[in-house]
Amino acid sequence: MVQPTVEEVIDAVKELKVAHPEMGVKKIFTEIKGSHDDWELSEKRVKKIMQDNGLVNAEAAGKQAVEAAAARAAGVKVVQAKKQTSPEPTVPICEVYPNGNFPVGQIMEYNEANGWRADSLEKKELDKVTDEIVAEARHAAEAHREVRQYIQHYIKPGMKMTDICETLEAKTRQLLGGKYMNDGIAFPTGCSLNNVAAHYTPNTGDKTVLQTDDICKIDFGTQVHGRIIDSAFTFTLNKPRYEALMTAVREATETGVREAGIDVRLGDIGAAIQEVMESYELEVDGKTFPVKCVRNLNGHSIDRYRIHAGKSVPIVKGREGTKMEEGEFYAIETFGSTGKGYVHEDMECSHYMKNFDVGHVPLRLPKAKELLKVIDTNFSTLAFCRRYLDRLGCKQYLMGLKNLCDVGLVEPYPPLCDIKGCYTAQYEHTLVLRPTCKEILSRGDDY
Ligand SMILES: [Co+2]
To answer: Any alpha helices (H) in 260-337, and if so which ranges?
Structure first.
């Protein structure tokens, strides 16, 4: 008989916990004795070692053991997780989840026709193959949740929009920074106000201040290795005034999220969204307005480093017969308006993005060449705004930028506005159509 070391006992316990996380002390002791008949070991000692090493709590110990075993198999040292700070998050997300087990989004089962996928062995195998990609998106999603809950507490009446955006972006950089393109920022922080539905972020020098009666769409993106989370909510300092409009849009987006699925026709999703959205009205300053879908805005498929990957998800009924497919990522976003329900480009442009498909274009203007190099290095095909160029130290770049737009290398995305005096709201989630289930990556306890 030999006396096993503490480490040997821990290893034996963990091995059992991997397969049977629910196993208690008594059973574990019996099992160990069974497989190590030369060990001189008492149940009391096993119990003590388990207690001392946090292996008693069945679920936690099981999960810990699974992670440790997986890490050992991969030759990785298990790193101690840091705790996120609150109410202001300051710890990089990768240090809170050092073993890469980022929080899973909300899981929704597919409807009847695809119900079989949840239990299909083949689909489960496929799920494992794509798990690494999904893990990157979950990493970005966790940053999104932390940043948005922080900014909601940070915003106070009288703040400049510039301050709100820069604080939000600095927080993303802190939580994702260092390793990823533009420090994990996927696109500029939208903070479109009132009749402006999308694509407004202040340019340098913009002194716009958030007013109590403003209704602001905070639309920002995070990304890890190009896996983008595109998610938005509506913010106001006067909730009672806009409650009905915000509820309409939140419910409309939820409808889109619920309807999305493999083989679902995009047009059918639009019809379902419209029905919910347009069942609401908003009474404001003694006048009643029907809530309309903004019919020329839509959700979209997302690909790596590509915010709009080609498929659009309409938010009104139509004839779009294209279907969603397995493995696709989608941003489901809806916009409600008390105006025309139609947006046009207006105001100074702040958003720009390199055209994903365009190849080499010869440039004559040295300023344009110089700027293109900055864009390729810092943003690649991710969207950026003028403030990002300013903070990189670019000077007098507007001519060069115009040239890049003129030759089609870069696309400008000006603010999108409904008629003056109206109000618009937006909610948006990013989801992935996994082989076995739908995962709402950006789901949080706020929306
Ligand atoms: Co979007």
So the answer is: 266-277
